[in-house]
Amino acid sequence: MSVLPDDVEGWLTHAQAARLDRCARAVPAGGRIVEIGSFRGRSTIVLARAAAAGVEVVAIDPHLGSDRGPQEIAAQPELGEEDTEIFRANLERHGVLDRVRHVRMLSSQAPLEDAIDVLYVDGAHRFGPARDDLARWGGRVAPGGTMLVHDAFSSIGVTLALLTVCTSGEWRYRGRIGSLAEYERVHSGRARELAAHVRELPWFARNGAIKVLVLAGRRRWAERIGLDPDAPWPY
């Protein structure tokens, strides 16, 4: 049975939702799950439904109508208000509104939480904000904890941020489901982590080429090199 709420808009795939579900279920009572970037609640619902009783689920999203998806960078306040209303309605419809603490702030301004067991990062994809999320919030993940990053090796900004932060030897790359990368907060050799990330660069280049072709109106060409005909982007 799928854990993904298909009636909620978002980019998370069924396989990626299953990975979030597994990681959230592993958090013991008294633990904490933090999500950066909630949009309309697709991933939030997955995390909240999987979390055990006594696990705190925190969703951080300013809902400014900015950084909503490809080519949607500038703030659009009216759209942000609409997103907030739909976000809350979606959580309520799926029975998890009372399980989620929504922090309606930029992740760069939100108070840092104490020890985090699972951190899911799907915020602004530009290099600066993405690096800040990985460094500041990733630094709060408890030893042995998990960090999951969406649009890894797909978004240029997110990928550069991963290469900057997650090859330091403080994280072990555990692989990916599509563009959802998983990391464990354990000490690991820098050379090992750099090599693991370099091995993903051909897939990153393929995704970049697909995006260029889609934007250029050459979708059929993009499908020839791997774009799912039913997907707008290679997530």
What level of helicity do the residues show? 25-40%
Form type: globular
N-to-C SSE string, H for helix and E for strand:
HEHEHEEHEHEEHHH
CATH class label of the largest domain = Alpha Beta
- The structure class reads alpha/beta
Give the C-alpha Rg: 17 Å
Strand order of the largest sheet: 3-2-1-4-5-7-6
How many domains comprise the coordinates?
Answer: 2
In DSSP terms, counting alpha (H) and pi (I) runs of 4 or more, how many helices? 8
Poorly predicted parts = none
Write down the CATH topology of the largest domain.
Rossmann fold
Distance between the termini: 22 Å
Task: Give the overall pLDDT as a whole number.
Answer: 93
**How many DSSP E strands?**
7
Q: What is the name of the CATH superfamily of the largest domain?
A: Vaccinia Virus protein VP39
The largest pleated sheet is described as:
7 strands, mixed
Strand content: 15-25%
- At CATH level 2, the architecture of the largest domain is 3-Layer(aba) Sandwich
